[in-house]
């Protein structure tokens, strides 16, 4: 599939033309993108939300990995019936959280058939390298 970008230089007005299909703007693509943001720090959650919503991305933010699993419909390690309202394109999670860490969340998600293909980004706002390694 060949893709060609065009536009007047404004990031929000770029157009992607796919050979053999309709032309869609980047904004149209991002509006259907839904991110689950997981962070125990309210300020960090708000920063993620604001950055992504600036680009028209839909964001659901939760305060813990346990809450993320609930939103994803996971009950005792198994995915419940798939809820289309909460179909996520990507999960962004903090690494250092009380209880279940972002890495623990990633491991749990990769064990669940309906969730293992969702891309996961693990990040940390901590500036203590030995805690993040």
UniProtKB/TrEMBL annotation:
Keyword Transcription regulation: yes
Record keywords, A-Z: Cytokinin signaling pathway, Phosphoprotein, Transcription, Transcription regulation, Two-component regulatory system
Chain positions found as 4-aspartylphosphate: 94
Coiled coil regions, renumbered to chain: none
Gene3D superfamilies xref list: 3.40.50.2300
GO biological process: cytokinin-activated signaling pathway; phosphorelay signal transduction system
InterPro entries: ARR-like, CheY-like_superfamily, Sig_transdc_resp-reg_receiver
SUPFAM superfamilies for this protein: CheY-like
Residues annotated as domain Response regulatory: 34-133
Function: Functions as a response regulator involved in His-to-Asp phosphorelay signal transduction system. Phosphorylation of the Asp residue in the receiver domain activates the ability of the protein to promote the transcription of target genes. Type-A response regulators seem to act as negative regulators of the cytokinin signaling.
Stated family: Belongs to the ARR family. Type-A subfamily.
Name of the protein in its database record: Response regulatory domain-containing protein
